[in-house]
Amino acid sequence: MSYPILRVHRDKIRENGEIIIRESAKNGISLWGVSKGISAFTEIAETFCDAGFKVIADSRMENIRRMKEKLPDAEYALIRIPMLSELEEVAELCDYCLISETVTLKALSDICERSARKVKAVLMFDMGDLREGFWHTEIDSLAQELCSLSPYLKISGVGANFSCASGVLPTTENLTELSSYAERLEKKLGYHLEIISGGGTCSFHQLLHGRLPRTINSLRIGEALLLGYDTAFCDNFPMLNHDTMELEAELVEVRTKPTLPIGLIGRDAFGNVPVFEDRGNRRRGILALGKQDVCIEGLTPLEEGVSIITASSDHLLVDIEDATADYKVGDILRFKLDYTAMLSASTSPYVTKVFEGK
Ligand SMILES: *Cc1c(COP(=O)(O)O)cnc(C)c1O
Q1: 204, 207, 211, 212: CA torsion to nearest 10
Q2: C-alpha dihedral, 12 to 16 to 17 to 18, nearest 10°
Q3: What span, in angstroms and rounded, lies between the C-alpha atoms of 207 and 94?
Q4: Helical residues (DSSP H) of 195-275, grouped into ranges
């Protein structure tokens, strides 16, 4: 097994899932487990299912195809609004799909009709974060368009996304507003919309703080499940595990060197002019880990007295002067990952993935 290694503790993620499901069920909320943050490894999809998730949601058809082959009994949702060019696959493989364009709805409707495949669409509304979503002024014309769709494409609800493009948070106000769109659509359509999907991890945070209106009955959860953390509110969920995974890398050089570079300073490998503080001679290490493996900014050293100095494509420099252990070449250092680090390490082909527990 070669380093760097992304070591994932599945039992801790499963536990997170069970807790999130339990807390949500108390409030009549059903959940989609979002797998995209960790590249939808089937080992993780299995853990989601073991925790009790019935629907697995991902942003890539490639991931959904792979998971469905391994776990055919789960339901699947595509949560990036689809490309026209992938709608055949959506009809073939997805139970649910988020949509925010009438042209896409019509095209998917035609494919569903022709292939006699059923898909449930959740209509996304933009509540101010300015990523995907219909605008509220479009509701009447949208309702009209919906009436001409194939019965194979069922409109199963509305949804919104928060804290993504612009950092806009879900609140009682904007979620109540979203629910009112569902009501308006129901009146026009003459049938009940099952799902009012109020967002992701940050909406779960709001649920725990009693700020989610009772009309919200569905959430799509990724980060809380995988990391026990909420980036939008910069908050750990006290009830969840935060040590669900770590990244391990091997030391290839250990030496005491000056902290101030010697010579004229030009630009570093990425075009930046680095700035250093003179702290005298200090012990430092080079890890065989770099920007090709992971987004370095998202790493926090787990070993005491270790701090990150800088990194290039393949080398991570760490200060180990204050470390309690006497590190030598060949030793392994571990790092905690934030969402971006998890995303990048899981997609990097250079990082070995190890799944422990069940
Ligand atoms: C990624 C994503 C989610 C999950 O968000 P988390 O903050 O990780 O819970 C939910 N909905 C959509 C549309 C997404 O793209």
Answers
A1: 90
A2: 100
A3: 28
A4: 201-208, 223-227
Among 53, 58, 125, 161, the mutation site with the greatest number of ligand 1 atoms within 8 A of its Cβ is: 161
Place of tokens 């943050």: 37
Please report how the helices 201-208 and 172-189 are oriented relative to each other, as an axis angle in degrees rounded to 10: 110
Q: What is the mean pLDDT of each run of 10 residues along the chain (358 residues)?
A: 96 98 98 98 98 98 98 98 98 98 98 98 97 96 96 98 93 98 95 97 97 97 98 95 98 97 86 88 98 98 97 97 97 98 98 96
In angstroms, the CA 335 to CA 103 distance is 45
342 lines ligand 1 (CB under 6 A): no
Q: Is the CB of 200 under 6 A from ligand 1?
A: yes
Which two three-digit tokens encode residue 242?
């935060």
CB of 205 closer than 6 A to ligand 1? no
Alpha helices in the chain (DSSP H): 10-25, 42-51, 61-70, 87-93, 102-115, 139-146, 172-189, 201-208, 223-227, 339-347
For ligand 1, mutation pick of 59, 129, 164 (most atoms within 8 Å of CB): 164
Active-site amino acid positions: 36
CB 228 within 8 A of CB 14: no
- Which amino acid does the sequence have at 230? D
Tally the residues of the chain. Answer: 358
The protein residue with its alpha carbon nearest to ligand 1, atom 2, reads 200
Distance CA 152, CA 115 (A): 9
- Using CA atoms, how far apart are residues 53 and 44, in angstroms rounded to an integer? 12
Check if the beta carbon of residue 91 is closer than 8 Å to that of residue 115: yes
